[in-house]
Amino acid sequence: MSTSLLKKAYDPENFRREGHQLIDLLGDHLKEVFQEEKEKVIDHATPTEELQYWKNYLEEGVAGAWPEKLLEHSIHLHNPRYMGHQISPPVPLTGLTGLASALLNNGMGVYEMGAGPTIMERLVTDTLCETLGYPGEAAGFLTSGGTLATLTALLSARKRKVGHNVWENGSGPALAIMVSEEAHYCVDRAARIMGLGTRGILKVPAGKDFRIRTNLLQEVYDKAKADGLQVFALVGSAPSTATGIYDDLEILQNFAADKNLWFHVDGAHGGAAMFSGKYRQLLKGADLSDSIAIDGHKMMMMPAITTALLFRDKRDSHNTFVQKADYLLQDSSDEDWYNLAKRTFECTKYMMSLHWFVLLKTYGKGLFDEFVTTLYDLGHTLGEMVAAEPMLELAVKPMSNIVCFRYVAGESDAATLNKLNSDIRKKLLESGEYYVVQTTLGGTFYLRTTLMNPFTTKEHLQGMLNRVKHLGSGFLGK
Ligand SMILES: *Cc1c(COP(=O)(O)O)cnc(C)c1O
């Protein structure tokens, strides 16, 4: 068997040469998008067109190296006119930690398969616990996304709060969790995976302000009990994905404590507010939660995908996936903390701690404060700008960097307005000058922006609003 391909593929000098070229290309790209020399945030094509393009490319119908092609065929998060989904433009340094992590490929399941990064993970999650205000016996780990973190937290909750050990003995009494109807769909999905079914997901209505209606908690809880359900957990949103509105975590925490429920905070988007001197009060009550999830790839400037899941009591972080014995009988909560796969869903995972650790080491916590505070401030600014425009209407006064609004222009027919705003969003996507997304709240179609780029200015926001108004008046023929 010839090994010429293998020798070529693993050649260190090829790596060095191609690596330098790639870094130069990406450096130029960053400069261009920051300085807005590239007009489009996204060069939209249909999936069928895209499929044809890459099929051609694979079969060598199109000339050129893959890095240039990739830049042309992907969305550019570092462009200040990117204001769509909640993924952050990563700090360029984390592009380099990502490279190092991918190349070294330490598997992280057991200590020996990533000694340094395992300890980094411990130090980083300890820092997060302390910043949040958790007590000394708290601990956490990193995992692959907010969705998986939610499932893990609810499994821990079930193990701790339900007398019947489902993990050991299979399904037992009918179980339920309580959560706002505005929560991210991953809570619903986790509950279904756990076998709770539709009736085990108690959706508490939200008010006009899109916050969970805490005055209904007792009623929902009582009804569930009367229906023979055992409620074991309550989930709060910090904030909810669609609107960026934080639930009143303090009231939720009180209710959970009173009923002996596990209180989980879904801080996938806004848990990072713990670093903001100005906005950390939004998390009041989270310091008394049982667990909280925080996405590194959202408000912490890291590449996808990396999520911290923190537990108020480290025993819970160790016992979620324990196969045998009630954790209460286990005397040492510190056992094997350095073998991460015992505590996480994943067996192998990438060296995600490197991003967190190197950012902390290089810039300190102040970087996260600057990022969150700048963007939440910008969210408020956009809220005020929209409120001042008679042609536009806010869904709700923003509490974070997520802002939903629509073009109304005096029109009142609901179906007309939904169609109009949907058309505006479609045109925005096709032109690619600004990237905003959409959401439907209570049957009403809204344009949805998440301000993720700290270099987006008031002028960019005004430009986007002008574009929306221009498109809207064009469609209305006014
Ligand atoms: C994004 C988000 C999630 C899901 O997190 P992933 O990292 O995308 O899996 C869960 N909850 C909230 C509130 C979110 O914003």
What does this structure look like?
- It holds the Pfam family Pyridoxal_deC.
- This is L-2,4-diaminobutyrate decarboxylase.
- Keywords: Decarboxylase, Lyase, Pyridoxal phosphate.
- The modification N6-(pyridoxal phosphate)lysine is found at residue 298.
- Its cofactor is pyridoxal 5'-phosphate.
- The protein is an alpha/beta fold.
- It has two domains: 12-41 and 76-89 and 365-478, Aspartate Aminotransferase, domain 1; 106-364, Type I PLP-dependent aspartate aminotransferase-like (Major domain) (Aspartate Aminotransferase, domain 2), CATH 3.40.640.
- It contains 16 helices and eleven strands.
- It has helices spanning 4-9, 12-34, 47-58, 66-72, 92-104, 115-132, 146-161, 166-169, 185-193, 217-226, 249-259, 314-319, 353-363, 366-387, 414-431, 458-476; strands at residues 139-143, 175-180, 201-204, 230-237, 262-266, 291-295, 307-311, 392-394, 402-407, 437-441, 444-450.
- The strands form two sheets. The protein has a seven-stranded mixed β-sheet with strand order 1-7-6-5-4-2-3, with helices on both faces. A four-stranded antiparallel β-sheet has the order 8-9-11-10.
- Helix 9 (185-193) links the parallel strand 2 (175-180) and strand 3 (201-204).
- Helix 7 (146-161) packs across helix 9 (185-193), helix 14 (366-387) runs parallel beside helix 16 (458-476) and helix 15 (414-431) crosses helix 16 (458-476).
- The longest helix has 23 residues, at 12-34.
- It is globular, with a radius of gyration of 24 Å.
- The protein starts with a helix and ends with a helix.
- Pyridoxal-5'-phosphate is lined by residues 86, 145-147, 184, 186, 237, 241, 266, 268-269, 295, 305, 307.
- Residues 86, 145-147, 184, 186, 237, 241, 266, 268-269, 295, 305, 307 line the site of pyridoxal-5'-phosphate (PLP).
